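Quick review question:
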C-alpha cells in the first residue's frame, strides 16, 4: 500500500464531504430541505468526516495484510 496516495484520496473525500455540508446548509437556507432533514444529514456528514479523519490519521490500520484482509 502507498500511505501517501491513500491519505491523498481520503483527503479528497473529506473535502467533498465538507462541500456537501455547505450545500446542505444552502439547501436549508433556500427552503429546499427542512431543518429536521438538514440536521440529520449534517449529523451523518459529521460522522463520515470523523471516519475519514481517522483514516487519514491512521492509514496503516486500513492497509491489507498478507492474506488480503484488512488488518
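Suggested answer, residue by residue:
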Amino acid at each position: 500500500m502507498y500511505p501517501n496516495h491513500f491519505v491523498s484520496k481520503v483527503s479528497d473525500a473529506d473535502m467533498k464531504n465538507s462541500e456537501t455540508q455547505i450545500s446542505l446548509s444552502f439547501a436549508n437556507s433556500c427552503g429546499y430541505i427542512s431543518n429536521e432533514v438538514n440536521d440529520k444529514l449534517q449529523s451523518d456528514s459529521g460522522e463520515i468526516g470523523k471516519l475519514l479523519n481517522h483514516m487519514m490519521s491512521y492509514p496503516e490500520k486500513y492497509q491489507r495484510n498478507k492474506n488480503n484482509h484488512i488488518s
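Why it works: The chain has one domain: 3-58. The longest helix spans residues 3-29.
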